[in-house]
Structures are given as C-alpha cells and as structure tokens.
Amino acid sequence: MFKNLINGEWVDGPRASRNINPSDTRDLVGEYAQADVAQTRAAIAAARAAFGAWSLATPQRRFDVLDAAGAEILARRAELGDLLAREEGKTLPEAIGEVVRAGNIFKFFAGEALRVGGEVIPSVRPGVGVEVTREPVGVVGLITPWNFPIAIPAWKIAPALAFGNSVVLKPADLVPGSAWQLADILKRAGLPDGVFNLVMGRGSEVGAELLENRQVDAISFTGSVATGQRVAAACVARGAKFQLEMGGKNPFVVLDDADLDVAVAAAVNSGFFSTGQRCTASSRLIVTEGIHDRFVAAMVDRMTSLRVDDARQAGTDIGPVVDERQLAQDLEYIAIARAEGATLAVGGEALPASSAGAPGFYLTPALFTGTSPAMRINQEEVFGPVVSVIKAKDYDEALALANDTPFGLATGIATTSLKHATHFKRHAQAGMVMVNLPTAGVDYHVPFGGRKASSHGPREQGKYAAEFYTTVKTAYTQA
Ligand SMILES: NC(=O)C1=CN([C@@H]2O[C@H](COP(=O)(O)OP(=O)(O)OC[C@H]3O[C@@H](n4cnc5c(N)ncnc54)[C@H](OP(=O)(O)O)[C@@H]3O)[C@@H](O)[C@H]2O)C=CC1
Ligand SMILES: O=C(O)CCC(=O)C(=O)O
User: Fold this and answer.
1) Residues with CB under 6 A from ligand 1
2) What percent of the chain has pLDDT over 90?
3) What are phi and psi of 435, to 5 degrees?
4) Rounded to 5 degrees, what angle do the CA atoms 440, 446, 449 make?
5) Which domains does the chain have, with CATH numbers?
6) What are the tens digits of pLDDT across the range 182-219?
7) Is the separation of the CB atoms in 405 and 286 below 8 Å?
8) Which of 54, 150, 244, 380 is the most buried (most CB within 10 A)?
9) ipTM of this predicted complex?
10) Which residues does the entry assign to the active site, renumbered to this chain (predicted)?
11) Rounded to two decimals, what is the model's pTM?
C-alpha cells in the first residue's frame, strides 16, 4: 500500500484506490491510500505550521532540495518513465520524455530560488526610499489532472517551493503512482516535515476541502473547465488566489504554400501523440482549398501506418486511452460527428486488446473530413485521438476559423510564407503560437498558458511562475 505524506509521516487512509494499467487491465500498478477530509485538514495544518520557517529558509537551502530532487528524477528516468507509461498509457518514449521534463523543471526552479529579486525605486517624496520585494503566498493547494502525472505536479510544486511556499498536492485519483514517487523523492531530498504534503484521494472530497479551507492561501488547478469553474467560484467566495489551466479546442492551420511533410508530421503529432490527451492537442485542422485533398490523403496514409498498442511495447506510436470513461467519451464524440454529417476518413475503431492479447482501452486515431465549424466536434473538447478537418477558402478565412472558439490555449500554422507566419503570430487569439511545429510539446523554461476559457490567472512555468507563487510588497522608508 502506498501511503499519503502528511507532516513528514507516511499515513494510511481510510480507503484505497486501485491503480490499473490501461494497456492491460489485468495489471494492478499498486494500491494507493485515499485520504478523507480529516486527513486533508491535517495536511493543510502541517503545511501551515511549516510555512513560517520555510518562507525564511535561505535560497541556498531551497536550491539544494530542488536540485537534489531534479537530479534524482533525471537519474531514475527509465524506471519512473516505465511507471508513468504503465499507469497513464502514454508510450514509453513519451513517458521518459515527461520524466526528463519534470527533472529539468526542478533544476530550473532550483536556480530561480537563487534569483528572486526586487527593485529599489526613488520615491516622489524627498528623503523616502521605496523597495519592491516578493514574498511567498503561504500554503498552496495543487490540484492536478491525470494526463501528465509527473510534469504537471512538477511544474506546480517546484516554483511553489522555490519561492518559499508550503504545499498540499492532490494528484488525480487515476494516476497516483508518479505523484507518490515525487513525494518520496522530495522527502528524501531534505525538505523539512510539513513543507510538502501528499493527499491522494477523490476530487469531490480531498479537492473540495482544499478549495473550502481558509488555511489554504492559493490554489493552482489543471483539469476540466467544469471543475475549473468550481475552483474559481470557491476561491472568489473566500478571497483565495487561484490559477486555472483548462481545456482547448486548438486549431492547426495548413496553408497552400505549406511543406506537406512538415504539415502532416506536425498535425499527426499534435492530434494523436499521447493519444490526443493533451490540453495543447490540435483537434481542428483548418486547411486551405489548394492543398486540402493532398493533405487529407497524406494524413490518411500516415495514420494507417501508426501502431496502436501497449504503451510499453517497443514500436508503439499510440498507447491506450486512459480509462473506460474517457474511451466512452471519445466514442460518443465519434458517433456525434457521424450523426452531424461528418465523414470518417479513417480510424475511430475501439480495439479490445493489444497485439499480445492484453485487454485495454485501445482506439485507432480518427480523422473526420467535410466538417463545418458549428459541429460539436469542432466546438467541444474530446480529449482523445479524434481530429477533424475544416476546409477554408484562403488565409484570412483560416485565421478567422482558428479564432472562432471559446478557447485560446495553443494554435499552430504550417506555411512557408514569412508574411503569413508573422501575421498569424500577432493575430492568433491564443497563449501559445507554433509555426511549422506541433501545437503540443512545449519547452519547460518559458511561460505556459492560454487566453479566453482555457486559462485564468498568471502564467505557469519559466520565470513568469513567480507571479502566482509570490506576492509583491512595496515598502517605504523615511531616511
Ligand atoms: N486541460 C487539461 O490539461 C485536462 C483536461 N481534462 C478534461 O477534463 C475531462 C475530465 O477529466 P477529469 O480528470 O475528470 O478532470 P477533472 O477536472 O475532474 O479533474 C482534474 C483534477 O480536479 C480534481 N477534482 C475533481 N472534482 C473536484 C472538485 N469538486 N473539487 C476539487 N477538485 C476536483 C480531480 O480529482 P479526481 O481525479 O481525483 O476526481 C483531479 O485531480 C477530460 O475528458 C478532458 O476533457 C482532463 C485532464 C487534463
Ligand atoms: O503540450 C504540452 O507539452 C503540455 C500539455 C499539457 O500541459 C496538458 O495537456 O495538460
């Protein structure tokens, strides 16, 4: 049984959850304790008690802990990557890549702990000095989704600790294994008791207590729009700071002048890698008339060569969907698109087992053509390997279609035209814009986040993370 970490102690829960491998549902990854409300309160109280000393710890102390954690994650990339692929279902290379990203994030924020700066500004009044400094926010509650079991916890935990906050992490109930490993690594890296607490369990119980508890000063959340709206309402009601990263319906524009190979490689990666389960995935391909038929033919050709199989099997391009519920959602959207009159060009077939006969949640990547912007498949996030093509007259229409969504996380374009690339970068209504690159798969040291219904609050990652995990103080001194 893998236990929760509360005030430096491993604590059993009143219940347990079974972590199941989506590539082989006979394979039990492990049993993980589920905290209840009382244990969540104990974790929050521990974080509160530990905050004072940690908020005043030297930058060198914070650097040492984060650097040690990053070094261990990187050294254990193969083992942690295997666990991640086993519990979540992304392919082994993708999973190892995610672990490396998590390790690099800890290393990056170790450095940021040393670089917390301030400003000295002359006052408008004679003899007065003004200093602007950053202080930690306090106890932060981190609520994370299942699709990046180690990278998303890492990019919330590392800046929180680097800037002197104490932490209570609630990972997604579906994938507690990678988060448990992170907790174990942080404990052994020398964090004082109570500075980092892990409370695995249900969102409706553990997550809800984090939102309601007045001892939690800030909440950083990644997940669905529906839960994000609850987080916002709860935090506004009690004046807590909050940050939300939610869904996307990310477009990828392909212009007549695009390099076809570049366009297809980027579209396939964006839409189908990690089984399409990325908030940055592009699920709308907006293709201008002159290249449309060639592009669709090349996509179908490439997609039929993709191997859908066990995530840990060498040669697998696309692993299983994360669980039965998500698979049902993907299949429902495929049925909706067909009923709305879209043409299924290829894929969309649920496979009951891997090539070795292991029962799992396999789905061949689906491409719809002949779709119109108003169809639900082009408006709502599916969160699976399901992509649609919309035909556009020219660049201007393609840009308008790309922006015609309530979301604004990531957007991309394939073009060889400097003029169009430059115009697109300026006029795309999204937080992240990619030219001749997949919309998904971002760097770990630069800001991450979106606009419109995708995100709320300051950006995550890079030096911009300081905006959420610190609060600014302006101090005046009369000499
Ligand atoms: N943008 C993104 O990165 C992601 C988007 N999604 C989208 O969301 C859909 C559903 O996925 P799902 O994992 O259920 O997303 P949720 O938003 O339900 O889950 C995200 C996190 O919030 C927690 N949570 C759930 N309910 C509450 C609550 N009432 N109070 C506080 N925390 C809560 C979850 O806990 P627990 O899981 O333990 O219930 C999980 O840790 C997907 O199909 C996809 O469309 C999903 C994942 C990531
Ligand atoms: O595309 C990426 O690299 C990150 C995606 C992500 O953060 C998400 O899907 O939640």
Assistant:
1) 143-147, 170, 172-174, 202-204, 207-208, 211, 222-224, 227, 230, 246-247, 279, 326, 329, 381, 383
2) 100
3) -110, 120
4) 55
5) 4-246+454-478 (3.40.605.10), 250-435 (3.40.309.10)
6) 999 999 999 999 999 999 999 999 999 999 999 999 99
7) no
8) 150
9) 0.95
10) 245
11) 0.98
